[in-house]
Amino acid sequence: MSRTLNKILFSIVLVCCLVGFSFPLMAKDFLYVASNNNLHIVDCDTDSVVKTIPFNDYIVGAIPSPDGKRFYMNSFHAVYEVDTQTNQIAEIHEFWSDLNRVTIMPGIAVSADNKFLYLSVSITKKKLNIPRLNVLPPQLVVYDVRKKQMVKNFEIPPNCSAVVSPPDDRNSVILLAQDVFKLNMKNGKTTKILGVLHPEDGKPGLNVLAVWNNWSPGKNGVVSVPSYSAENLFYMLIDKKGNLDMLKAEDIIFAYSSTVSPDLKYLYAVMDEVYKIDMKTGKTLAMDHLELGTCYNATLTSDGKKLYVGPGGPDLSVYDTATMKRLGIISLKGDGLIASLITK
Q: What's the domain range around 36?
């Protein structure tokens, strides 16, 4: 072989290597599924549990940090901080003591810069040897996860079961309470943006069966919440700028939670059945009865091609979103309420 040909071949191999190294490794989707006493990590390529992290608690809410490097799951008295790079519990933030009963509501949120937790809490204080309890007004606590301390707190409306932190509006959070409010984080002022228990004139009162603040995947992510009036079903939609919109459903179904596809074309809702909804018309496009019963959560892969329904009992059901046919069932070690997608 001539030296010229050798040089050409070497150059081709070198260019291929450089091009290959210039591209990042393909990101993979994982589900973080909290159940009683165990956190399950599911590989979305194989639909199998690749790791189980044991602990001793029951989880009522969970959310990943915006950068995906942390997964926060909360019981009523503590927040568990999971390092998603090592898949280990990095810290347990305790909020409950003998003299300070701090109860955390399920729907916690993380600030856009990944530094703070936003927690809706109720606080009951007691002094030693004094038979009297001091019940404080409901509070939103801003908690610095690195310093492990509360840095701000605001009095908020009652029954705030979830907080939404819009990443494109860093000065505000959305409070899902008896009504829906926007809280200004600079001055603590709350502004009502949707009447739920106290509707605006001419608008129906609403009922929400359960509230989680799991963002749908993609750059246009949306938090969606099924909301019922006496006559209709609506899906409450909150975008990354904190704007709120309502989608009226064509059919009245029962749904605990819902999620929106990355292209904002479809919405998937779940309770005893799973539904695929057209986001423009609210029309039901497909449905399936859940083989193993009631589920509380719906989670999509980052490409929107697979839907994971559950947990509710100790399992997840996997669906092909194009056909809405069940692909399989993933077994878990315990009952749970919520699952979150992390792409890494």
A: 26-343
